[in-house]
Amino acid sequence: MTRYSAWSVFWNGLTGQKGWDRAWRDPEPKAEYDVVIVGAGLHGLATAYYLAKNHGVRNIAVVEKGYLGGGNAGRNTTIVRSNYMMPGNRDFYEHSLKLWENLSHDLNYNVMFSQRAHVSLFHSPASRDAAARRYNTMRLTDTDGELWSLDELKRNVPHLNYGPNSRFPILGAAVQKRAGTARHDAVAWGYARAADQHGVDIIQKCEVTGVIRDGARVTGLETTRGIIKGKKVGFAVAGNTSRLWGMAELGKLPIETHKLQAFVSEPLKPLLDQVVVFGVGGAHFYISQSDKGGMVFGGDIDWYKSYAQRGNLPIVQDVAECATSILPCLGRVRLLRHWSGVMDMSMDGAPFICKTPLDNLYLNAGWNYGGFKATPASGWYFADLIANDRPARVVVNHDLTRFERGVNIDERGAGPDPKLHG
Hints:
This protein is of the alpha/beta class. 28% of the residues lie in helices and 27% in strands. The chain has helices at 6-14, 42-55, 89-101, 103-107, 125-140, 150-156, 184-197, 241-247, 313-326, 375-388, 402-405; strands at 32-38, 60-63, 79-80, 118-122, 146-149, 172-176, 180-181, 201-203, 208-214, 217-223, 226-235, 255-265, 275-280, 283-289, 295-305, 335-346, 352-355, 361-365.
């Protein structure tokens, strides 16, 4: 397979673009694999890649009911950051950010990772003190972070609503300069291409319809393309995790599935160089500007449970109000499109990377709002778990029994407010 380089781009430009190979194969499924990963989204593809690269596993399949990267991978706002304080969260996301920083070179594919800074606004002295505590903890544990005064914030992000009568008065911001955005589909394509080069079979249009068990072991998967046997099986299917869990006859998971909408405006001239975030008074909002000029933004989940990938107008209104409250200059900008990802919201807001009650079944789920930025570390640690049959130190508490131990990983320590909305 062609290795991408400046020379290959130049040469193919001279020869009519005829020298490119397929980015990845479209193989028929084998009867049996050493490892079968269910879900060809970002986490599933990253897991397969690191299984092959880091652990030398060669007989791997990734099965996907639709097309590669067609689920949440292409339905998010592409923010990457590691500004966490809690043990477990802090270590995990900092490792992920370090992997992001070299990901294009590692995959030999431009994932368009742009370290444009993550600017989290604060609106009261109390929130400023909380941000100072969080960011001081980050700095003491080798993660970058700084606090901007109001004057410094105005110099760097001049278009925010700094007026004395603004709905959410701004006092300053907590900033992580190494954070930023990446192109979601490029990440999926890069991991797919790199995994394929290591011999991974990526099998699209292959929906899992049943899990075949022999006592406490999974022996294979029933799919729309026949039975596929696997010595080890990993679930990485985001909002559809509970469905597969039911197929494996494992009862209930501490997960609810909700929709999270994202929005893109019509293209604008350069307006916002950073990712800007705020959360106050029941509002939750984040925004950045894409390379094409569109303003990419989002807010809260749809609070009722759903498997749909379509948005609803109440959230459109809520997020639009947040946008205009903080960036009034967007008031007459037209919304180009919006869509919805299907989120698996755990009860404490933290993910699962763990073994299951079945000996050879492994779980990657419960990512709430954090799935995209977690991609490299999620794949790294899930691959390590599957290969070595034990969790790495960083994810040792990301298991299904942490609720019994009272372990708190997420900063907020809360997921979808279970059962509150039906």
